[in-house]
Every structure is written in C-alpha cells, then in structure tokens.
Amino acid sequence: MSNIAVFPGSFDPITLGHVALVKRALPLFDKVIVAIGVNSQKKYLFSLEQRLEWLEETFKDEPKVEIASFEKLTAHFCQRVDAKYLLRGLRNASDFDYEKTISQLNSALVDDLETVFLISDPEYSHISSTIVREIIRGGGDASSFIPKAIKI
Ligand code: ADP
After folding, report:
1. Are 84 and 55 in contact (CB under 8 A)?
2. To pair with 31 at 20 to 30 A between CA atoms, which of 18, 55, 105, 141?
3. What does the domain layout of the chain look like in residue ranges?
4. Are 33 and 2 spatial neighbours (Cβ–Cβ below 8 Å)?
C-alpha cells in the first residue's frame, strides 16, 4: 500500500512557499498530489488551465508529484484518489486557527484521513498567493516569490 498525500489549494498563483513545502514533504510520502480545489463561488485571478499549466511546469522533474484539480469536498477527493493524508502548510497563528477547524472537519467527513502540517521555512513564511496577486495587480515585480517557470 502506498502512502499518498493530497496538497490542496487554490495556487492562484503557485509560490516558492508552496514549492518548498512540497519538496520537504516528498521524502515522507510515495506520492504527493498537488490539487487545485475549484470553488465556483470564488473569484480567481488566473484561470484553472493557467494554474494547472504552471503546476505541471514547476513539478515536471519530480516523478513523485502528480497534478490534479477537483470540485466539491477535498475529503471526498482524497477518498477517490486513495490518499490517507492531507498536506497543509502553517505560516502563522491565523493559519493554525483556520487549519485546525478544517482538519477536524475533514477527519469527521472521512475516517482515517489525517492532515499533516509542515511549519513553513522562515524564509518563505511571508509569502502568500494573496501578496503575489496584490503585487501583480499593482504592476510590481513578483518574480522573487514565484517559481522561475512562471512568466507572468
Ligand atoms: P487556499 O486557497 O486553500 O488557502 P493556498 O493556495 O493559498 O490555498 O495554499 C495552499 C496551502 O499552502 C495552505 O496549506 C497554505 O498554508 C500553504 N502555504 C501557502 N503559502 C505558504 C508558504 N509560504 N509556506 C508554507 N506553506 C504555505
């Protein structure tokens, strides 16, 4: 039986913080599925196709990484792909408060689904997709926060 983890998010866009987290998680799992959760109520800056393409490009040399997207509940997606683990990153106390509730909810929805949290590396803890979007909207240069493969 292989240990599969799902790393869910919006990845709008993917940042160096996400990449660092996935790289640190790879030794822990046989496969990490980086999966874009599609929420029809939410407005994204970049299209799903664009975000998927950037994920594919970023992780093309990582054989243990798979890219996917899903609608509806993350916990049910984990069930479908046979993943027993959810991977999430913690940057600060507000991430913790939010993630704690979501993690408990996911465990209640699907038995034996464990969320594994990795504390962000200090050099990435200030990076978020929200900040990157603000920089882009303001006409600034966000290249030091995103993978080189991404040309915005
Ligand atoms: P969501 O829309 O679910 O918040 P994101 O794409 O913003 O999705 O983030 C996905 C996951 O990546 C979350 O667990 C978040 O905490 C984590 N993450 C985002 N940025 C960083 C970072 N700089 N360092 C570590 N983890 C991060």
Report:
1. no
2. 105
3. 4-137
4. no
87 CA: nearest ligand 1 atom: 14
Render each residue's pLDDT in the chain as its tens digit; 152 residues: 699 999 999 999 999 999 999 999 999 999 999 999 999 899 999 999 999 999 999 999 999 999 999 999 999 999 999 999 999 999 999 999 999 999 999 999 999 999 999 999 999 999 999 999 999 999 999 999 999 988 88
Q: Please pick, among 40, 42, 94, 148, the residue that the annotation labels catalytic.
A: 42
Which CATH code for domain 4-137? 3.40.50.620
> HSE of 31 in the Cβ direction (CA atoms, 13 Å)?
14
Q: How far is the CA of 64 from the centre of ligand 1 (A)?
A: 20
Residue 115's identity, in one-letter code, is T
Those residues with Cβ within 8 angstroms of residue 74's Cβ, 6 or more apart along the chain or in another chain? 6, 8, 35, 37, 86, 106
- What's the CA gap between 2 and 120, in Å, rounded? 25
Active site residue 126: no
Query: Is there a contact between 124 and 23 (Cβ–Cβ < 8 Å)?
Result: no
Respond yes or no: is residue 18 known to be catalytic.
Answer: yes
3-state SS assignment for residue 64: coil
